[in-house]
Amino acid sequence: MLTGGARVCVPYAVLEEAEALRGSLAEAARPRLHTAAVDVADAARFDAFASDVRSRFGRIDVLVNGVGGFAGGDLASTTPDLWNRMLTLNLTTTYIACHAVLPAMLQARSGRVISIGSRAVVPPAGGFTAYTVAKAGVIALTQALAHEVRAQGITANAVLPSTMDTPANRAAMPDADRSQWVSVESVAEVVVFLASPAAQDVTGALISV
């Protein structure tokens, strides 16, 4: 999105990752990246982050909910701690972010909410129950929100990747066949489309990648 002239504001938990992101950009694009250390599971801290972004740049046009985490395990082996962690990482963070940015979008009567779900939970599958329920909740939240805010000029859509080709997934599954994995760039292209004028009438959609 930086290549399109947008300012991108990223909350981070690990400073090294934020620095690596900045380092991956062309030098001319780096001033348009704003990063801040934020616990995205803390509603008050994310509210403060959203307020700061709005104060700095005057508006919030697009929200991309990309925070998440995966853990396997059937229901019988899922502990309450694991259950809560999966719901917090995948679903609660999505709610918190949407709740924080909606006032600005409603005031502007314009905005795009784009959430990253998972193709693996459509339909729900066994073996990773807490993750499945959390990502299914992201889908339900997206579709409900799309109905609630469509009349205010705001769209809400979800991108549903299969296994993404990331360093973390490579480390977790070193022997996996990666031929069918989805590149991060492919997912990003769909996100950019949903944020673009071409997708102004697309809302409530679940786009598999």
Compose a concise summary of this entry.
Helix content is 44%, strand content 14%. It is α/β, with parallel strands linked by helices.
* Global structural class: alpha/beta
> For the record, what is the CATH homologous superfamily label?
NAD(P)-binding Rossmann-like Domain
Largest sheet: 4 strands, parallel
What CATH first level would be assigned?
Alpha Beta
Terminus-to-terminus distance: 18 Å
CA-based shape: globular
Strand order of the largest sheet: 3-4-5-6
| Helix count from the secondary structure assignment | 6
- Give the strand tally: 6
CATH topology: Rossmann fold
Description:
The structure is a single chain. The protein is built from six helices and six strands; from the N terminus they run E-H-E-H-E-H-E-H-E-H-H-E. The protein has helices at residues 15-24, 43-57, 80-108, 129-149, 167-172, 184-195, and strands spanning 8-12, 33-37, 62-65, 111-116, 154-160, 206-208. The chain has a four-stranded parallel β-sheet with strand order 3-4-5-6, with helices on both faces. Strands 1-2 form a two-stranded parallel sheet. The protein is globular.
List the helices and strands and how they pair.
Elements: E1 8-12, H1 15-24, E2 33-37, H2 43-57, E3 62-65, H3 80-108, E4 111-116, H4 129-149, E5 154-160, H5 167-172, H6 184-195, E6 206-208
Please tag this protein with its features:
alpha/beta, single chain, 6 helices, Rossmann fold, 209 residues, 4-stranded parallel beta sheet, two-stranded parallel ribbon
